[in-house]
Amino acid sequence: MKVAILSSVFRKEGDFKEVEEDLYTVGNAVKRVLESAGHEAVFFDVNEKTFEELRNSDIEMAFNVCERFNGSSLFEPHIASMLELLNIPYTGSGPLTLATCINKVRVKEILMHHGILTPNYQVFYSRNKKLDPELKFPLIVKPVCMDNSIGIGSDAVVNNDEELRSKVGYILRTYDQPALVEEFIAGKEITVGVLGNGRNATLLPTAEVVFKNWPAEDNKVYSYEAKWSKDSDQWKGITIEVPADLPKYQEYRIKRTALQVYNILGVRDYGRVDMRLSPDGVPYVLEMNPNPGISPTVSDDEQPDFIPLAAEKAEMNYDQLILRIFNEALERYNMTIKIMEMPKPATTENTPIAVTTEVGTALKTGNGEVQIPELKQKISQKEKPVRVDPDIVI
Ligand SMILES: Nc1ncnc2c1ncn2[C@@H]1O[C@H](COP(=O)(O)OP(=O)(O)O)[C@@H](O)[C@H]1O
Ligand SMILES: [Mg+2]
To answer: Could you say which ligand is closest to the alpha carbon of residue 286?
Structure first.
C-alpha cells in the first residue's frame, strides 16, 4: 500500500528544539516500520504545498504524526481536516477531537459534564482578576493551549496571591493566551495509554512518573526541564515506572477513567490520558492527548515516550505497536482483508513436522527424511497428543 507519513522535518532555528527534533524522529521511525512491513512509505514535511502534493499523488492512506504547522501546535487539527477534504484515510483522531483536546479548559468542561474528576480551576485573561475563593493554594499556572510541558516549570506552582499574579502575567505575555490556574494535586503522577476503538479499545499498562531523586527545593511537576533538558537536575530526578505501583482498586479506577475520557472525547486508534492522584489515590484528569508521542525510545539520554514503553511491557515491540495503530485505522475504514492463517511448512532440518504413518505419527525432518521415533516420542511438538495403541510394536 502507498502510505504518506505526515510529519515535520526538524529545523534547528525554531523554538523548543527538543520537541521538534523528537517529532521528526517519530516520522522517520514510522516510515521505517511501514517499509519493513512491505508498504511504500512517502515522507511529507507538511507545509502549505502539501495539499496540492497529496491531491496529485496516488497515496492510499496517511499515517498522521504531524503535530506542528509552521512551528505551531494549534494547526494540528487542520492537518487532519486537509486529509478529510482530500478523502484520504488516516491514522489517529479527527479534527474535532484534536481541536478540542488542544484546549485544556474545553476538555475540563466536557469531563465535568460527564462527572469525571479534574482539578478545580479558574481561567485568567488578565493578571488582575479576583481569585475564586473556592480555590485553595497551592495552585499551578499553565498555558491553556500548549503541550509537552511548554510553559510549565516547577516554579509554575504558586503558594500565594503575589506569586499567582506574577506567574499569570508571565503566561499571558509569553504565550499570548489565557492562563489556566488549577489546584495542585499532590499525589502520584500517572499516565495511561489506550489503543484501538470502541468496544475493542485496549488499555496499556499504567505508567508512573516517579520523582525519585527530585531536587528537594522544587515542586513535583513533570516540567519542561524534566522532560527535555537532559543536563538538568529535574531530568535526572525522574524515573518512569511501568506498571505503576498501585493497589488493584486504584488501578481499576484509573483505567476505567482513562477509557471513559478516551471515548467521551472521541479519540481514535491511540491516545494517552494524563492524571494526577490525590494523596488518598483518587484520579484527577489533567488532559487527554490524542495522537500522543510514539517516539522509539532506546537511548539513555531521552525520556521515553510512554506508549512505546508501556507497549513493550505488554510484550508488544515498537514495530508491532506502529502496525497495530496502522491496522486500527485501516479497520475503521473497512480497509483490512482478513486472511485465514495457514499452517507453516517446516523449513529447517531441526524443525520436525507431524506426518501420519500406518503406526500413528512419525516425524518428517526438513530434508524430507522420515524418522520413526520410539513410541513414547510419537507426539509431535506441533500437534495435540495423538492416542497410539501401546500394543503396536514397530
Ligand atoms: N493540577 C495539577 N496538579 C499537579 N500537577 C499538575 C497539574 N497540572 C499539571 N501538572 C503537572 O504539569 C505537567 C504538565 O501538565 P499537563 O496538563 O499534562 O500539560 P502538557 O500538555 O504540557 O503535558 C503534568 O505532567 C504534571 O506533572
Ligand atoms: Mg501532559
So the answer is: 1
